[in-house]
Amino acid sequence: MIRLASWIVGSLIIAALAAWMISLPGTLTLEVAGYRMQPRLGAAVFIFIVVAIVVIFVWAIVRHIISAPRAMARRSRERRREQGVEALSDAMIALQAGDPARARALARDAQARLPSNAAAKLLEARADLALGDMPAAREHYRALIASDQTALAALTGLYDQARAQQRPDAALTFARKALNLAPNSGWAAEAVFDDLSRRGQWADAVAMVNAEQAVSREDRARKRRRQAVIETARAREAEASAPLEALEHALTALKLLPDFVPAALIAARIHINRGDTRKAMSLLRRIWRATGHPDIAALYAHAQPGASAVDRLKRMGEIIETPPPHRAAGMALARAAIDAYDWSLARNALAPFEGPDATQGVASLMAEIEEGQNGDQGKAREWLARAVRAPRDPVWTADGMVSDEWEPVSPVTGRLDAFEWKVPMTATMTASARTGEGQPAQLPSQAALPLAPAQNPT
């Protein structure tokens, strides 16, 4: 209704203006090719407006005819671009759906329709890689490296290809190039860091960790953990050749993680070798209360070089209550008691843990007690048979491999911080402990160094 009223009012206004224009007084004389015309002024203005409208209309038709080829070409380009984008979208879907052959065909179609589109080239390279056409994928990626826009993505593809072909050196080269182009590239930084850790280049590795930007609480905790692991690895390497330097690294790790058992063990051993037994025992007591790790108890018992088995047993009584609060404490006390031939104490220490859920370690110690205290070979064999079927005790495990000692990196994958103190899921090969590497002759072999404060073993 409002639109109709507006149209009527507009028409009346236009009609009134036309009538007013035609009724204007005066005449206009026009002479064209010997012809003279003398229309009224209003009629002349009206004629001029009509002629202008006709000229504009004719010019519009002529211009449309002249520009028709260009418009058709533009529409063809737009249609070609739409088809290219559609082919690119279908190619991505096909690649994700597990059809790399169709994805490559569509990517080539998209590249033909969109010659300057980098995404089409990258998608074709990805499809080649998925099809196993390594030479074609490599050629595509190398061509894309020349462009700043696609260099990082191309290096990512080359890195994946090198890993798929089991070429670690080439993969590392691509990762280093990517890190130079984009220092914030996560995958490149991780690849370079893993290589430094695998090679034991701890100074460069800790420099990379120190340069990391930690924003959240989780990032800061992860950064501190990495720093502590690396500092502990540096201390472990320098323990034999440069004990003071190793002690500095170990104390740095303890500042990062106060209950970090690996650093505490190294620092305690260095203190013992330097004659600072009180410092070593104080540190070990604190870590034992926090973690209850058996290696702490073993080193505490041997903190005084040359001490007798009876002295070691008395020292164990300083940190382990009776009855022992958990299995690790009971086994440590029983071990010291067996060495001192205190069979009653050894039996009492294991009594709370010799039930149906007794572990292999408990069963083996009970076999020693039965044979040593009573000379009962029958019961000793029963305990040994039970040990074969008993659950295993926690050990250092990384990537399915069991080790007698903690290592900073996994010997299987080279991954930093891989070893965990836990019960292994399956029986696997055991790595023999390294001996003679900075081990004091009067102390136990270098204790396993956990990466995090251990829970009280039960």
Short overview:
Helices cover 66% and strands 4% of the residues. With 458 residues, the chain is mostly helical. It has a 4-stranded mixed sheet, with no helix packed on it. Strands 1-2 form a two-stranded antiparallel ribbon.
Query: What is the residue-averaged pLDDT?
Result: 80
Elements, N to C (H/E): HEEHHHHHHHHHHHHHHHHHHEEEE
Q: How many helical elements?
A: 19
Helix proportion: 55-70%
What's the β-strand tally?
A: 6
Radius of gyration: 42 Å
Strand adjacency order, main sheet = 5-3-4-6
- What structural class do helix, strand and pairing data support? mainly alpha
Distance between the termini: 87 Å
How much beta, percentage-wise?
under 5%
Low-confidence spans: 427-458
Global geometry = elongated
Main sheet makeup = 4 strands, mixed
Summary tags:
elongated; mainly alpha; 66% helix; 19 helices; single chain; two-stranded antiparallel sheet
